[in-house]
Amino acid sequence: MHVKVGFVDILKTLAVEFELNSRHVENIVGLIDEGNTIPFIARYRKEQTGSCDDQLLREVFDRLAYLRNLEKRKQEVIQSIVTQEKMTDELMAAISAAERLAVVEDLYRPFKQKRRTRASVARESGLEPLAAIIFAQNIQSGCPEDLAAPFVDTEKGVSNIQDALSGALDIIAENLSDDAKLRGKLRDLAYSNALLNSVGSKDEDSVYRLYYDYAEPVSKIPSHRLLAINRGEAEGFLRVSMEIGEAATNLIDRFTVKEGSITSDLVRQAAADSWKRLIHPSLEREIRNDLTYRANEQAIKMFGQNLKPLLMQPPVHAKAILAVDPAYRTGCKIAVIDSTGMVLDTTVIYPTPPQNKIEDSRKTIKNLVTKHQVEVIAIGNGTASKESEIFIAETIRELRETMKEGAEKVSYTMVNEAGASVYSASKLAATEFPEFDVSLRSAISIARRLQDPLAELVKIDPKAIGVGQYQHDMPVVRLDETLAGVVEDCVNSVGVNVSTASAALLSYVAGLNKTTSKNIVSYREEHGSFTSRTQLKKVPKLGGKTFEQCAGFLRISGGKSILDNTAVHPESYSAAKKLLELFGHSEDDLKAGNVQDLSKKVKAHGWEKAALACDVGVPTLKDIVEELSKPGRDIRESLPSPILRDDILDAKDLQPGMKLTGTVRNVIDFGAFVDIGVHQDGLVHISQMADRYISHPSEVAKVGDIVKVEVLEIDLEKKRISLKMKGLN
Questions:
Q1: Does a structural domain hold residue 566?
Q2: What residues pair up with 406 in beta bridges, in sequence order?
């Protein structure tokens, strides 16, 4: 007996779950199986996918992997049970119809090879028939001891009647624990009725004090609270348990006990033992693992949602940027970079305690600003950033008072320095800046991440960027996979200048890996800047499939063809040229920027008619038109730029009711942290974020958003600032 669940069933499942056209689903799966990357499919195969975006495609990819794993496990289970010659038509149908791995494992549970148990010992002693008699509950007269007497056998280890009854009840208890239908009912009951309890196991105060005597329904506990409880348990501050109450034992009784039999009480006893000793511990582990999995997925999803806008912050175009990496004892590291990111100057100043060399430090900053025509000062937001910010704000004020040339243009901004120290100590940083000390590399990174956040932040492990919650508790592989996908999507949506990009940035381009990225850089160093995309085919190990995947995302600035500096894929160059000819334009017009009205012309002509003439689909034609209208554009320019300041606000100056403008720094499950220009970010609780009901803060805010806030409460001692956005944005 053998049943293979078909590939078509998986396609149908995906189509229903994601509400997609079945033909599009089949195309998506086919494209994935052919080795195409998600960014390539999302951008250049829109006709085949129904214009699914990269996020949806990744969700389909993940679900496809789960369903395939489910079908594989079904086949393994079926094969095992068939080999044991215990397969039935009913069991086969149940396994084939299972939609979750947990259900498959429940069905397989009775047939698994078990370690030696009390029940297995009882079976070896020949007590299985007695267990069957007791569980049948068909005998209304006599006593259970009379039923057990014939099974006493000292040679088999059954010394007396009590041993026989105990062994039989152990068998019944294990059989109940292995019953898939009963486990399913109890699992459903637990998810709807169970409470997750936590109590403090240590006397001392801790960040987990809220959970020292805490209970919340399993069905309602939010991800961030579950993860906090899990961490408190792992650190030894909490004892955690799951309580279902009498509802579980009542359900088991209804499922197993037939009243009126002389063995009914024994079955009830076995059922209670099965619940307490076998089912409840197993279900508690399973449900807590499932809740943790869901919470992890939510936290990982939130991390990804926060990471994307951080990576996509617009570049700050300035003649020069001066970066301050604040510190106390070791001094503030200073780096100045030009508009291309090249390091112009580095030094160390000591405006903070214990040295407090404020005047010498101020003189150094003024000289650097004047010498290099610095327009923006980037201050890292770590240790000593408050003192550094005050120092820089006062220095800018003095520069303006003395009317130093260019001083009126100088402003500063705080930069999230998370991960800068990780980068500065890495092999990559040592390769890029072998002549600079580790601490100075960190200052260079701060300057560059303001100048071009995406190009700089891709050099850092996404986990180190610090825009998530409980990221250090997450499954490493899953977190890395998700965040790498976010970085990949960002890099490919922006595009990469192949003649200037680092190997780290190139490695995130669709189709490229670390080896091909290094080969591109090596080829560039040997042969000079690329002049056309076709040159990429000369790069070692960059074959036809890789070229197909990466070419559209790589830009050639100042090359032979203007199309090489757009997101138009080389496979669509002929279509782009036909389009230009159709409306009387040439590539020279394109270079001169004289085709901005192309979209209006195509619309008047008819999109479908124009697409037919160019031999492409309408979605691809619309992308081509958009690219030709603004060749070389940077999509990040339309996003909110960092707030540049020239003065500082102290937390002591804050008053309830004060209205300010700030930048969203982090979005978490219960609110958002907003930088309002003081050292401590303020928290906008989810209840204060909107005038309507929202289920999650991400519905109204994302990292990098510029928002208006009102101060609700300031607690200087605990360094807490409560804000609201409601009614202001």
A1: yes
A2: none
Domain boundary among 615, 638, 661: 638
Residue 496 lies in a domain: no
Cis peptide before 354 (omega within 30 of 0): yes
Tell me the average pLDDT across 276-291. 95
CATH of the domain at 599: 1.10.150.310
The verdict on 214 and 340 lying in the same domain is: no
Note whether 471 and 299 are within 8 A (CB): yes
> What H or E segment, with its residue span, contains residue 360?
helix 358-372
Residue ranges in 498-586 assigned as alpha helix (H): 503-506, 514-527, 544-550, 573-582
With a cut of 60, say whether residue 717 has pLDDT above it: yes
> What's the half-sphere exposure (Cβ side, CA atoms, 13 Å) at 170?
18
Side chain identity, residue 324: V
Residues 656 and 625 in one domain: no
User: Which tokens go with 564?
Assistant: 């090489």
Can you tell me the distance from the alpha carbon of 38 to that of 59, in angstroms, rounded to the nearest whole number?
11
Could you please report the per-residue DSSP string of 423-440?
Answer: HHTSHHHHHH-TTS-HHH
Indicate the pTM of the whole model: 0.82
Inter-residue contact 485 to 60 (CB < 8 Å): no
> pLDDT tens digit string along 503-562?
999 999 999 999 999 999 999 999 999 999 999 999 999 999 999 999 999 999 888 999
**What radius of gyration do the chain's Cα atoms show?**
33
Supply the pLDDT for residue 637: 82
> pLDDT by residue (tens digit) across 33-59?
999 999 999 999 999 999 999 999 999
In the predicted model, is pLDDT for residue 4 greater than 50? Answer: no
Q: Is residue 644 part of a domain?
A: no
Total count of domains within the chain: 5
What SS3 state is found at 343? strand
- Please say which residue of 111, 134, 155 terminates a domain: 111
194/188 Cα distance (integer angstroms) = 10
C-alpha 444/C-alpha 325 separation (Å) is 9
CA 79 to chain centre: 36
Q: Which domain CATH number covers 81?
A: 1.10.10.650
3-class DSSP assignment, residue 208: coil
Cβ neighbours for 653, distance < 8 A, ≥ 6 positions apart: none
Cis peptide before 222 (omega within 30 of 0): no
Structural domain span for residue 296: 118-300
